[in-house]
Amino acid sequence: MKLIIVESPTKAKTISNFVGSTYKVESSFGHVRDLPKAKLGIDLENGFEPKYVIPKKAEKRVNALRKMVGEAKELILATDEDREGEAIAWHLEEILKESGSNFPPLKRIVFHEITERAIEEALKNPRSLDLSLVNAQQARRILDRLVGYKLSPFLWKKIRYGLSAGRVQSVALRIVIDREEEIKKFNSETYYTLHAELKSLKNARSVIHAELYKQGDEIIPKLGTKTKEEAEKILRDLEKSSYRILKIEKKEGQKNPMPPFITSTLEQSASRLLGFSSKKTMFMAQRLYENGYITYMRTDSLNISGEALRGATEWINKNLGSKYLLTKPRIFKTKSRLAQEAHEAIRPTKVEIEPKNLRLEKTLQKLYDLIWRRFMASQLPPAIFEATRVEVEAKSLKSSRVHLLKASGNLLRFDGFLKLWPMKFEEREIPPLEEKEDLKLIKAKAEEHHTEPPPRYNEASLIKTLENYGIGRPSTYAPIISVIQERGYVEKNQGKFFPTDIGTLVNKVMTENFPEVVDVQFTAKMEEDLDEIAKGDKEWHGVIRKFYNPFSKNLEEKYQEVSKKELTEEKTDIVCELCGKPMIVKFGRFGKFLSCSGYPDCKNKKTLKEPPKSIGLICPKCKEGEIIERVVRKNGRARGKIFWGCNRYPACDYASWVNPLKEKG
């Protein structure tokens, strides 16, 4: 009997369908060895060597596998081909060797899809364990353990028990909080754009809407005209002007499809289009992979196998027709220089399995549909548009001023990849017009707009930002986002991330005392070092040592320097109505609150309300108050949706779920 070991029972069951009776496929049920939970588990005095243990929950399974190995003629490790999968295979080898002297010959096989062809090919081409990948995973695990186990007790002592710090989660938290600070400091600006509705003198039905883009030789800036007075002055000119078409330009434009998914883009699209969290997306993708429907879902490569490309071409020709065929397959270049090109992009294993013919639960069906359509669309021709630009001259009848306006049209001429991957676009048709033709003004108007602050991060934009900075890798995006929510450092409101009071305080402590740990560039460099270890170009002990020695020394100093009282208490001018002593701001389990400085003699405490944020707009209802941003509160905590209301409430009850600036602008 030849024994194949994989991580999950679902994966084992699928592979069992493709191998003969000479093979027995078993699951390790995940990790069989790890660092201990209750202690550091790293020998700091002897090269940072990890002290692994078999978790209690894995002991029974390990004993069963040891017995099976003793009866096997050959041991085949078929865990995932990434760093974590390679490390699991290595741990399996290490603990199963302990089963006795009759340890069978060991082979390592890898594949990117769980199909009969892929498994047969893998069994024909075994390899040895890649210790460089193992060491990269060990280094990541050790680095994360050192930061977590050393910094978390510091936060317990200086803020409160139960907090945690992490090497990458702390950077993600900082990114969210830096954006929140940008929003707080943002001052909205008002600007105006000028528009004219014009019709042909030859054909009254030929009407265009044009926007002012040039005054004389000066191009109107992106944010338009700054003052109302200036806008009204231009408006009076436009109302007393003659109009003539100077130029009509038509040109063909193309829009190419996006590449098939990699991990980060799958998580982003599933968040944006399906409303899935990154954690849910990866859980569902894992199930699709283990059941043989898609290729491996943790990848940053855009590689596509020749067989998959041929399959896509055949399906397109049969189902869409020859006009949707490319002259040759479209190949995408991976942006990440560290991507593992042996991996593939995320794609269906068999393109002939169309989403509509697949009988899966609803969420799995939706995700498979997304993956299938994105891959197939990547092999379709570009969408072709006809773009029309009309340039109109406006000559003032009262002065010598000349203004230029433009009107744009956009028509889809061939849908191309949009056949399978619809995207939002606006078609605008320009009616029949001729150059040098005179036009008549129907109406001119000035539109008021307001600049808006940068948007808060949602899951999709945070993953994209982490990826752009080079922070995290395909397997880490979902855990990073999950942990900052589980720790209570950020809250998701209407799909956007808001830092909590405790998250803001933890970030303040980290940025002021451990700046390297939360530095974006430093963390990205650490990721590059881990990639170099994975390629065999760097030795892992040295990478750990270079980080830990200065980190450890700084940590010892901060234990002495940082005062808990200074961190967790803020003085106020508020006087306690019970004893007359000043009230102070403290941090509790649910954030900031007011407490009497006379505690424990006086136990007076109150909820602390943050001052409301004005958006710089007069209330449209009462014309007296200002519109402020508010959050629906539940049990004294900001948990509900954001809304906008008048600061004179209850005297004025104006409220809106939509930002009035967007309605107005």
Characterization of the model:
The chain has a six-stranded antiparallel beta barrel with strand order 7-8-12-11-10-13. The model has no long low-confidence stretch (mean pLDDT 91). α6 (169-185) packs across α13 (477-486) and α6 (169-185) packs across α14 (501-513). The chain is built from 18 helices and 23 strands. It is an alpha+beta fold and 665 residues long. It folds into six domains: 2-129, 3-Layer(aba) Sandwich (Rossmann fold), CATH 3.40.50; 145-185 and 481-562, Orthogonal Bundle (Topoisomerase I, domain 2); 190-249 and 387-450, Topoisomerase I, domain 3 (Distorted Sandwich); 263-377, Topoisomerase I, domain 4; 565-607, no CATH class; 613-664, no CATH class.
Topology:
Blueprint: E1 2-6, H1 9-16, E2 23-27, E3 42-43, E4 49-50, H2 59-71, E5 74-77, H3 83-96, E6 106-108, H4 116-124, H5 131-158, H6 169-185, E7 190-200, E8 207-215, E9 218-219, H7 228-239, E10 241-255, H8 263-274, H9 278-290, H10 306-319, H11 362-377, E11 383-396, E12 402-414, E13 438-450, H12 459-469, H13 477-486, E14 490-493, E15 496-499, H14 501-513, H15 520-534, H16 540-561, H17 564-568, E16 569-575, E17 582-588, E18 591-596, E19 605-607, E20 613-618, E21 626-634, E22 637-646, E23 655-656, H18 660-664
Parallel strand pairs: 1-2, 1-5, 5-6
Antiparallel strand pairs: 3-4, 7-8, 7-13, 8-9, 8-12, 10-11, 10-13, 11-12, 14-15, 16-17, 17-18, 18-19, 20-21, 21-22, 22-23
